[in-house]
Write a structure and sequence with these properties.
21 helices; binds magnesium ion; six-stranded mixed beta sheet; eight-stranded mixed beta sheet; binds adenosine-5'-diphosphate; single chain; 21% strand; elongated; alpha+beta
């Protein structure tokens, strides 16, 4: 048999494993047992759905054998096994789960070896403790058995073998002990027992090992003799079936980490039991960080589905609404049909009512966290708030009422997060709008010309720091009857009646000037008018009804939309700014120059808003000319 080479990425990972000085090498056992358990799940499921594949539950086992003389450790299962093709695909290439991120981290990892333990790196982790690995396997779907063997970097060999029973037997030839590493420990009964308890106690199949027991010597009761007997090392009770009050936080954490491939404790555990027409238990988790691929196509949301403790499906996405897709975990129901498949999941009436019930529970858990554990909620929101916002505007806002009280915005009041409820409850007397300002940072927003006036008037402003925030307010239109209003929209009205009158007089006085400026700017603006939102700045540009300035910016960055939709703009001039008097003077004395002034001021206003300008060179030239004249 020809030796085959590992794929490049796998090779890198493998090298790391082989040369690892990571101290927590023991996790290899957890990884192999978890693979065995997955394989047993698959076999069990097959036996329930295909009558030619019957196997008794009690024959689904994992066995550990330690051989001190040969320095080998065997992990054997009676699971689904692997075909030749599967061997090639699964063990010749880096495993799927978590590995893309692992690869990314690998780049920075040369020194930080800690990351090994942080990922479910799977099968290859066995190379941390082994100099050679032999996999012998017979698939339930094929007649011929195969072996896969490798001593690491220089490749692997796959050969046909004889193996009578379906399942997989993995033999690790342990490395020699060194000054720092005692690999022999992994052949000790106490150590193996400890590791199984620590990492794999809830595996729902017996993990068996032959252990030595001392029993009284029947011929001499002062003596004992050693006998060998098979013992099941794990308790096998699924964690979610245990009483909530009897479960320690630590147990939830370990369970989550080992089962759902995370290295951090979950941020929130939601464990509950429902009895009724549809009875089920759910053990759900909210991760404490955003999965690296959460917003990408390859992120697979969903819950594991069990029926009476039998695993049915992984990543059943129909159990979760899109807006809660950050939740992971499992659901175990007594009332579901075992033959349920991914395809019929969506149509199944029971599954639909199950999903509805799960959604409600998650919703109330989040509401509860927001109310009683604000700090944690804010952390959660930083991780997944975007997804909730997305949930609000998705599908034309069908879910907005459910989600609107779960979203947070930073606000000018204390630069802290506020809910819409908090905002509206403390609105100033006479304020009937929810004010917001868009920008990529608080600093940027605070520099917007309009902010001076807003602060002077004492209004609280929501900072829309995310491009999508305006989609949210756009879909919602209002909260509790109060409309959203951008501080950069033409409709903003901050003036008292008295101030308004004053402005109107000014506008009437300078009608000629404003019109001349509008003429100079042509189609670029709809109107040039006196501003009531400016305090210290000379000009600003605002958007008329419809497309907002932020939308325009967003669209400009969208490659699908080059030069596309634009906001209808209005240029506003501050009548109290010295530039205003200057403009009046120019109009009276050198009207031919007014066009350049209007142009420069308009371009400035665009720049301040972070909007693209048409002709930077022309702008620079005009500024220089003005400087020379000054
Ligand atoms: P992961 O378990 O995250 O997919 P692993 O590296 O642990 O990644 O395993 C790679 C793949 O090899 C598994 O997905 C599975 O298909 C296969 N595999 C590993 N161990 C076994 C086993 N004992 N029985 C059957 N298939 C296995
Ligand atoms: Mg695995």
């Amino acid at each position: 048999m020809a030796k085959k080479q590992f794929k490049a990425e796998s090779k890198r990972l493998l090298e790391m494993m082989i040369n690892s000085i990571y101290t927590n090498k023991e996790i290899f056992l957890r990884e192999l047992i978890s693979n065995a358990s997955d394989a047993l799940d698959k076999r069990h499921y097959l036996s329930l759905t295909d009558s030619s594949q019957k196997i008794s539950r009690k024959d689904l086992t994992i066995t550990i054998e330690a051989d001190k003389a040969n320095r080998t450790l065997v992990i054997e299962d009676t699971g689904i096994g692997m075909t030749e093709e599967e061997l090639e695909k699964n063990l010749g290439t880096i495993a799927k789960s978590g590995s893309a991120e692992f690869r990314a981290q690998l780049e920075k990892a040369e020194k930080n070896i800690d990351i090994i333990g942080q990922f479910g790196v799977g099968f290859y982790s066995a190379f941390m403790v082994s100099k050679r690995i032999l996999v012998e396997t017979l698939s339930a779907k094929e007649e011929q058995a195969y072996s896969w063997s490798s001593s690491g970097e220089d490749g692997y060999i796959i050969s046909p073998i004889t193996k009578e029973t379906v399942g997989t037997r993995i033999t690790l030839s342990l490395k020699e002990d060194t000054e720092d590493e005692n690999y022999s420990e992994y052949l000790e009964e106490y150590k193996l027992r400890e590791l199984v308890k620590k990492y794999s106690d809830y595996v729902r199949y017996p993990i068996r090992m032959e252990v030595t027991k001392s029993i009284p010597d029947p011929t001499d009761d002062k003596k004992t003799i050693d006998t060998k007997e098979m013992e099941t090392l794990n308790s096998m009770v699924p964690l979610w079936k245990k009483q909530k009050s009897k479960i320690k936080e630590e147990e939830y954490n370990e369970f989550y980490k080992s089962k759902f491939n995370d290295w951090e404790n979950p941020q929130k555990v939601i464990h509950y039991n429902v009895e009724g027409t549809l009875s089920y238990t759910a053990l759900l988790f909210i991760p404490s960080r955003t999965p690296y691929n959460f917003y990408y196509q390859d992120f697979e949301p969903g819950l594991q589905l069990y029926s009476k403790g039998v695993f049915i499906l992984d990543k059943a996405k129909d159990l979760l609404p899109d807006h809660f897709r950050f939740v992971t975990g499992l659901v175990d129901s007594d009332d579901l049909n075992l033959n349920i498949s991914r395809e019929i999941l969506q149509q199944d009436r029971q599954v639909r009512s199950l999903a509805k019930s799960i959604e409600k529970k998650i919703q109330s858990a989040l509401e509860d966290m927001l109310k009683n554990d604000r700090e944690n909620y804010e952390k959660f929101f930083e991780n997944f708030g975007l997804n909730l916002k997305y949930g609000i505007y998705k599908d034309y806002g069908v879910n907005k009422d459910k989600l609107q009280d779960l979203i947070l915005f930073r606000s000018s009041a204390e630069k802290k997060y506020v809910t819409l409820k908090e905002y509206t409850e403390r609105m100033k007397e006479g304020q009937d709008k929810i004010y917001y300002a868009c920008g990529s940072s608080i600093d940027e927003i605070e520099k917007l010309p309009v902010m001076g006036k807003i602060h002077e008037k004492g209004y609280e402003v929501l900072y829309f720091l995310d491009e999508r925030d305006e989609f949210v307010s756009g879909i919602m239109r209002d909260y509790d009857g109060k409309q959203f209003m951008s501080v950069s929209s033409s409709g903003l009205d901050l003036d008292t009646e008295e101030e308004k009158k004053e402005k109107e007089e000014k506008a009437a006085e300078s009608k000629g000037l404003l019109e001349a400026m509008k003429d100079a700017l042509g189609e670029r603006v709809k109107e040039v008018r006196i501003s009531s939102r400016l305090k210290d700045d000379p000009v600003c540009v605002v958007a008329d009804e419809g497309i907002s300035l932020e939308m325009e910016k967003y669209m400009a960055n969208d490659p699908m939309n080059k030069g596309g939709v634009k906001a209808v703009k209005i240029l506003e001039v501050n009548p109290d700014h010295p530039i205003f008097a200057k403009l009046q003077k120019i109009q009276n004395e050198q009207p031919e120059k007014l066009a350049d002034y209007a142009d420069v001021l308009y371009t400035q206003a665009l720049l301040i808003q972070g909007l693209p300008i048409d002709d930077p060179a022309e702008y620079a030239r005009k500024i220089t000319d003005l400087m020379i004249q000054a």
